[in-house]
From TrEMBL:
InterPro entries: 6-blade_b-propeller_TolB-like, Sensory_adhesion_molecule. The keyword Signal applies. Residues 1-18 form the signal peptide. Keywords: Signal. Coiled coil: none annotated. This is Superoxide dismutase.
Length: 306
């Protein structure tokens, strides 16, 4: 852990760099309204995009300019779809947001191979990442808990198992308090840690996988409306949806300090709800949440220079 003096020095913000423009990468089918999350299959380069409004998941074959419906709206009782992620074994994980559902599909056939449920309708399963052993870690923005599905859980759950709670956040630095608001959202693994953002406060938190201890990541930036979060190497990208902003930050080796390197704000981001690195580029979903006259078709875009 850095000393207070060293941490203060590390928090100095790097000089600004020019970023942009925002250019379309591919469009989505008419049914995908308010795209929420995206993920790339590391084996094929295909990209999958979820729709919050109806649970649809679309697939964009690598290099194509148009995505196609992969999992139909409302499939398997899922009225909403939030976080999506492809694991290293060719499985597509789809979170059901307020439905409490977690569905796992074969990435080639779209056949559901496992399903979990939190059994709660007052939560909001939001995003997920995979630890070094392949376990999935899932945030809930309304309930102060992080869920975990291990490879053993997955093998033993063909359909409808209880979603295992791994960590209660009550009494930790990431405690949700008593006010219902969007709390932990985007999450990514970084070595032996998880890094996650609170959408309302903009704080970053580090969770140690070994000890399950939670600590605040020191940063000169508050990532208010932080939504998507991805890490590549020792750099992290966060999309701040309603602020139409994408930030790139450097991470210390122990994930205890985040140093902002580039901040890009533009209305052209159209409420970026998720962010990934793809082919050396920064790619976002343009969610347009709450826009009564959205630009259609909805799409996924590349953000240059960041």
């Amino acid at each position: 852990m850095l000393s207070a003096a060293l941490a203060t020095l590390a928090l100095a913000v790097a000089p600004a760099h020019a970023a942009g423009p925002v250019t379309p990468l591919f469009t989505l089918p008419p049914g995908n309204v308010a795209p929420e999350s995206l993920t790339a299959d590391p084996a094929t380069g295909d990209i999958f995009v979820s729709s919050y409004t109806n649970g649809e998941v679309d697939r964009r074959p690598a290099g194509a300019g148009q995505a196609q419906v992969f999992i139909a709206a409302g499939a398997d009782g899922r009225a909403n779809a939030t976080g999506v992620k492809v694991d290293g074994a060719g499985r597509l994980w789809v979170l059901g947001g307020p439905t409490g559902l977690v569905d796992v599909y074969d990435v080639k056939t779209a056949q559901r191979i496992a399903a979990f449920t939190s059994g709660r309708t007052d939560g909001l399963l939001n995003d997920l990442t995979f630890g070094p052993d392949g376990s999935a870690y899932i945030t809930d923005s309304y309930l102060p808990v992080v869920y975990r599905v291990t490879p053993a859980d997955l093998a033993g759950s063909p359909n409808g198992a209880a979603l295992p709670e791994w960590l209660s956040l009550t009494g930790t630095p990431a405690d949700y308090g008593t006010t219902k608001q969007l709390n932990l959202n985007g999450i990514a693994a970084y070595g032996g840690y998880l890094v996650t953002v609170n959408s309302t406060t903009g704080q970053l938190f580090r969770i140690c996988l070994a000890s399950r201890t939670v600590s605040v990541v020191q940063s000169s930036t508050q990532f208010v409306t932080g939504d998507g979060l991805t890490i590549a190497g020792d750099q992290m990208w966060i999309s701040q949806n309603y602020r139409n902003t994408v930030v790139r930050a450097g991470l210390s080796d122990d994930a205890g300090v985040a140093t902002t390197e580039v901040t890009f704000t533009s209305d052209d981001l159209r409420i970026p709800s998720s962010v990934i690195r793809y082919g050396g580029q920064t790619v976002v979903t343009r969610g347009q949440f709450g826009n009564p006259t959205p630009v259609t078709p909805f799409d996924v875009a590349v953000v240059g220079g960041i």
